[in-house]
């Protein structure tokens, strides 16, 4: 029953995101049909606005904040700074009339975004940052770095997330996958393939769960628990939706061997077969 509830909740949330703009990290056509329980509303100001969505959030005045990756899938091994954050007004009510403005640009691989207390936070590349607008002109000033997790920009090596829970930011530094490496789990940096909690004041972090391959999202589900998806590949025969728990290992091993690689492997809440 629990798995069924979790599956239903995440199907609904995923469908809602897909309807607004399209798949995360890729351009997508507007769907022609949707589930009868959902309403299709096109929030693209015009056909030229096709964000590669990696985060969504609302400001208190109803404006929608959209994080856009903007990178090239053929250059995943490189640092890419094509990311943007858009703010879209006019998206609520029965007859939306969206107007798009660019809030921040030239961002380093933004792969997570959170709006909290009308402040905008972005995770991606090597940093968790705040994008302040202290003069209230609708444009972000210089980013404030909250936390830095070293990365070499190998394939998959992003900082996915982002949520705020129990007074901490939560994000996922994904495992690296060098294109020329002999091992799918070869790593150059510590603390990868994990979910972590980050103190918003000091920037110190605590590893919470390990053994993740490409944990490209995080969310708060039923009973206020954390859920993380992981992508199929080496050591992962299928995609997963994991109800992460403190100190647990979820199967993806590294080279060189990490301290947690010999721990008991815990299963996900739901397996999501590829294809």
Shape: globular
Content-based structural category: mainly beta
Mean pLDDT: 85
Number of strands: 16
Low-confidence stretches: 1-23
Count of alpha and pi helical runs: 1
As a percent range, the share of strand residues is: 25-35%
Q: Could you spell the SSE succession in H and E letters?
A: HEEEEEEEEEEEEEEEE
Question: What's the main sheet like?
Answer: 4 strands, antiparallel
Radius of gyration: 18 Å
N-to-C span = 25 Å
Strand order of the largest sheet: 1-2-3-4
- Amount of helix: under 10%
Structural description of this entry:
The protein has 275 residues and is mainly β. It contains one helix and 16 strands. It has one helix at 2-20; strands spanning 53-58, 64-68, 83-89, 99-107, 110-116, 119-124, 127-131, 144-148, 159-165, 168-173, 195-198, 205-209, 219-220, 226-230, 239-243, 270-272. The strands form four sheets. It has a four-stranded antiparallel β-sheet with strand order 1-2-3-4, with no helix packed on it. The chain starts with a helix and ends with a strand. Mean pLDDT is 85; it is low at 1-23.
List the helices and strands and how they pair.
Blueprint: H1 2-20, E1 53-58, E2 64-68, E3 83-89, E4 99-107, E5 110-116, E6 119-124, E7 127-131, E8 144-148, E9 159-165, E10 168-173, E11 195-198, E12 205-209, E13 219-220, E14 226-230, E15 239-243, E16 270-272
Antiparallel strand pairs: 1-2, 2-3, 3-4, 5-6, 6-7, 7-8, 9-10, 10-11, 11-12, 13-14, 14-15, 15-16
